[in-house]
Amino acid sequence: MGTSKSQPNDWMTKDGTGKSTVFGDERGWVRVQPDGQEVVIHCMTGVTGLTQPEVTSVDNPAPGDYTIGVNLIRWSVYFDEAVVVTGIPVVKFDEAGVQQEAVYSSGSSTASMLSFEFTGTTVGVIDNVITSIDLAGGTIVSDDDGSAVDLAFPNDYVQPTGVNVIA
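The chain above was modelled as a monomer; its predicted structure follows.
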């Protein structure tokens, strides 16, 4: 999805066909249904303090030995509400000093937990996780209203330890 501005206070989110699916105007956030009907999904009149959906916690892979190409090394990322994923976002990290990517592997359009997996390519230790999700050309938006999601890991995120890739 892309975003375009038509007027100073208006915004639109367009699907791959260029059709507006969600836009904002003086009414608030509006979703356009497939039949063309506009449905107000968040009324902005008198509303303050709306927050952006965000990552609430991250489960690292369990400590242990993972055989190259055999064992899945998995991160589970939890959000404070259900999200919709398009494309294949990634979590980046170092494996034996080489930057690698765990790719989005599961979580439906109503999921508040997404899994990212990697099978290992180099013998070494998994460390130095980049503390946010990289969209890699995809999108992750709120299932509730289509709003953008804060993809940064929580401030209390702790890097994985004892995750070893072996031959």
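The CA atoms of residues 132 and 151 lie 5 Å apart.
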